[in-house]
Amino acid sequence: MDERASSRRQDTRDYHSFSSASSSVSNLSKDRSRSNSKKRNFRNKKKPTKRVKHTIDFPPLDQSLLSFDQFQELYVSNDIPTEKLRLLYQTYERKWENKQKELFFDQHKDEPWIQDKYNPVNRREFQEERNQLAQNRFNEFLKQYNMGGFNNINLTMTEMQLMDFFELNDHFYNDDPDVPFWEFQLKESIDITKAPFFGSDPNQNSVFIKNVPLPLSRADVVKALSSLPGYVSLTLSEPNKLQNYTRIGWVSFDGEEYCNRCVNDESITIKGHSLQFQKQQEKRKFVRVFKSVEYNKLLKDLQQQRELIKVLDKEKGISGNPLIEGPLKDRDDPTFNRQLDIQTLYLRRIHNYCYWSGAEFSDYRLLVSKVGYHFFRLDQKKKCNLEWQDIIQALCNRRREESSDELPLTELIDNEIIQMGLKLRNNRQKDAYPCIFCEKQFQGGTFLIKHISLKHEKQYWEHQQSLSQQVIDQQMANNHKIERSSKATIQRQIFVKGLIDEAQLQENKIQLPINFAPRVQQRQYKDLDSIAQDKTQPAIMFQMRETKVNYNDI
């Protein structure tokens, strides 16, 4: 028995030792396999390529612009690839252009036309003038509205009316569903100012000034023109480099007879400079017709228009507008289209805002020249790419959230005084506004300025005088910088296809207003047909324009 038991114990030990040995061999083979696998992966793994960052010192920006060949010769020893060098040259060009604009601004900042463009006092005066004109137009519009003058307005057309009203052999025609509108020339027999359109022809009541020299400020010209009977407003263009930096202007009058009288007088003299008048002659009147409209979205358009009117009325100091009172019309209401058309007309005539283009202009003449005498809707159920309505509504929302108000100089100085207090007092309480003349602190900037004006009247007046020119210079530089940065965006043309929402607009940094083709794209395309034939780009094209008051047109 003892021998058998001893034999069994020996067999058990042998089995365990064999199992342990085989397990060790198996683990060893696995380890070797992992090691070999890692080695293979290490051999096969590609080393990441190092990105070489090329940094160079650009040539002096206050000297003449170098050509690309000259630029390339400067850095021939840097061993920079040609593609990278071209990108660096583009950066150099942008920096050079910005520097030249800064130098030009510093050289001419005391001249009247620069003061008109960038001085906050001049800009505020121009805005107040525009506000007064808008209020006058509102009073005329309200009088006609209360008398039922717009009851038969109709901006919806049938195909038969297209043949009656427009020159169909002279238009931009396109069946591409991505192009939302046609552009037609109005027949000479059709009066756009009469019912049912109630448009306006700015050329009937305006004259053209051939040359306005730079030494004359806008205030000088307005003062001289104000003595003419029937004078309403003045619009000045940017100085033309090719014509010795002269400007052209348009003078609006209260009636055609005043225009004719002004033209007969031929010219006026201001500070030794003679201004000559000519009657503006433009027989071609173009309008735009949307091929199709998604009627389910028109209710939202009506609501968006009303909200935009509230914002623009407030900016212009207009109150008591019956268009924004009462409940919204239902889509099935027989007066729905009339209300939509009246609001569209109101935005154009009072605020120079074309809702169906998302475009705002400094005066009505510019609006007509860019987006036409009217926008019409075609009354038919034809399939069309209708995301343009979503874009327009999103742009309307953006405009409502932005303000075009220019602060008065006194408020700008007050803001500077507030900032001085915030910078000087490091031991101030949280969210407190300290006084720079005593130890008191306030819970708001308004209370602080009220305290300073009452308790430190002499110091407050002295600071206003000393800070006045400093604030003006600072604001002029800021306005010039903002214009330069916005123009870089404005000059880029953005092609949009597909549904656009608020988030996408914000992400793409699209700014108001955006102007529909084809007027603004004739540099690239002759008509809408050529756009549709370009298969590399979507058919709808939008061009950036400035959001606020277009001071380039002052």
UniProtKB/TrEMBL annotation:
InterPro entries per UniProt: DUF4187, RBD_domain_sf, SE/Ars2, SERRATE/Ars2_N, Znf_C2H2_type
Name of the protein this chain belongs to: C2H2-type domain-containing protein
Residue span, C2H2-type domain: 433-461
UniProt feature, compositional bias: Basic residues: 35-53
Comp. bias intervals (Basic and acidic residues): 1-16
Keyword Nucleus: no
Residue stretches spanning the membrane: none
Keyword annotations from UniProtKB, A to Z: Metal-binding, Zinc, Zinc-finger
Biased composition (Low complexity): 17-28
Region (Disordered): 1-54
Classification via PROSITE patterns: ZINC_FINGER_C2H2_1, ZINC_FINGER_C2H2_2
GO BP of this protein: primary miRNA processing
GO CC, one annotated term: nuclear body
